[in-house]
Specification:
single chain, mainly beta, ten-stranded antiparallel beta sheet, seven-stranded mixed beta sheet, 3 helices, 10% helix
C-alpha cells in the first residue's frame, strides 16, 4: 500500500496517495513526431498509421518513440482525445553527477534532495519505494482517480477516491490537453508516497483513472480520500470501462524529471507543448466516444518478496 499523510486513511494508497500501437502492418516500435510548427499538445499521433511503415521510416528522427505493450488491442477506431497519459516516478537520493529537476524535502533542520525517475508500466515496485504519479488527459474534462489494493488471489480491496482532494490544487480536478496533474502535489508534505504492503498477500495497486466531460454529481471533496461504494465503482466500470491498450515510451525508463514537466505540474498555469516531454505510458480504448467518460486501469505491481535465507546450524 502507499501509506499516507494525515488525515488520509492508512490502509490504502490513499494514505499517501496513493499508481501499443499494433496493427498488422505496424512494427513493434512506433515513432511519433508532431509537426514542427504545431504547438497544440497531442498525445495520439495517427500520422504513422495513415502513412504506413515505409513512410514512417522515411520521416525525420522522432521525438516520441513508443513500443507496443498490448498487441492484442487494436489501434483502429481510437479517438485522439480519448487517450490518457500516465507517468510513474520513483524517487531516489541525488548524486553529484545527476541531471534533471529535484524535489527537496525537509525533516526538521535537515533537507534531502530527491531525483524523480520514470518507471516503466511493466516494472515492479518494492516496499519502501517513494513514488509520484503524473496524469495527462488529451481533452478538456474532469479527472477522478480511485485506488484499490490487489491481492494474490485476484480479489481487490475497498475502493477509495483519492483524487480530487483539497490537498491537491485545492480540489480543482479540471483537465485539458497539456495540463499535468501530479499526485501528490509538489507542495504536499511529503510530496511523494511510500509503498507498503498492508498484508502478506497484498501484491499491488489498481489505480483507476477516469476522465469525464462534466463533473460527477454527488461526489464531495475534502482533504481526505473518500470511500467509494462498490456499487458506484462497478457502475463506472460497466458504463465506461472496456478493453484498454497500452503504449510504453522506448528508452524512457530511468529518465529524470525535466524542468518543463516540473513547471507544468506545479499549479496548472503552464501546459506542456507538442514538442515537450510526453507521458511514459499512453492508455487507449478502441471505440471510445469523445463525448462520454473514459476509464482506464493502471496496475502497479509489487516485486515478490524473497524467501529468507536458511542458515546452517
Amino acid at each position: 500500500m502507499i501509506p499516507g499523510r494525515k488525515p488520509i486513511p492508512s490502509r490504502h494508497i490513499l494514505n499517501a496517495l496513493v499508481m501499443t500501437l499494433c496493427v498488422a502492418s505496424l512494427p513493434a516500435a512506433v515513432a511519433q513526431q508532431p509537426q514542427e510548427e504545431e504547438t497544440t499538445r497531442q498525445l495520439w499521433d495517427t500520422a504513422f498509421i495513415k502513412q504506413g511503415n515505409k513512410a514512417a521510416a522515411a520521416r525525420k528522427p522522432a521525438r516520441r518513440n513508443y513500443r507496443i505493450v498490448t498487441p492484442q488491442v487494436p489501434v483502429t477506431g481510437v479517438s485522439a482525445d480519448t487517450v490518457i497519459g500516465v507517468t510513474l516516478w520513483r524517487l531516489r537520493p541525488t548524486r553529484p553527477a545527476d541531471t534533471g529537476e529535484r524535489i527537496i524535502t525537509h525533516d526538521g533542520p535537515e533537507s534531502v534532495e530527491w531525483l524523480p525517475e520514470r518507471v516503466s508500466s511493466t516494472g515492479r515496485l518494492s516496499e519502501g519505494d517513494r513514488i509520484r504519479i503524473s496524469i495527462e488527459a488529451a481533452r478538456t474534462g474532469y479527472l477522478y482517480v480511485v485506488d484499490q489494493e490487489i491481492y494474490a488471489d485476484g480479489s481487490k480491496g475497498e475502493p477509495f477516491l483519492i483524487f480530487p482532494t483539497t490537498r491537491t490544487r485545492g480540489g480543482d480536478n479540471s483537465v485539458k490537453a497539456g495540463r499535468v496533474i501530479e499526485i501528490p502535489s509538489q507542495d504536499d508534505s511529503p510530496p511523494y508516497f511510500t509503498l507498503k504492503r498492508t498484508r502478506v498477500d497484498h501484491v499491488g495497486e489498481n489505480v483507476i483513472v477516469l476522465v469525464t466531460p462534466t463533473p460527477i454529481e454527488g461526489l464531495g471533496t475534502s482533504d481526505k480520500a473518500l470511500r467509494l461504494s462498490d456499487e458506484t465503482l462497478a457502475s463506472w466500470e460497466k458504463s465506461w470501462g472496456a478493453q484498454t491498450g497500452r503504449l510504453e515510451m522506448a528508452n524512457g525508463n530511468g529518465k529524470p524529471w525535466t524542468r518543463q514537466e516540473k513547471e507544468a505540474g506545479a499549479d496548472g498555469t503552464r501546459s506542456l507543448k507538442a514538442d515537450e516531454p510526453a507521458p511514459q505510458t499512453i492508455y487507449y480504448r478502441p471505440g471510445a466516444s469523445s463525448t462520454v467518460p473514459v476509464l482506464v486501469k493502471v496496475e502497479l505491481q509489487y516485486a515478490q518478496k524473497r524467501p529468507p535465507v536458511k542458515r546452517r546450524q
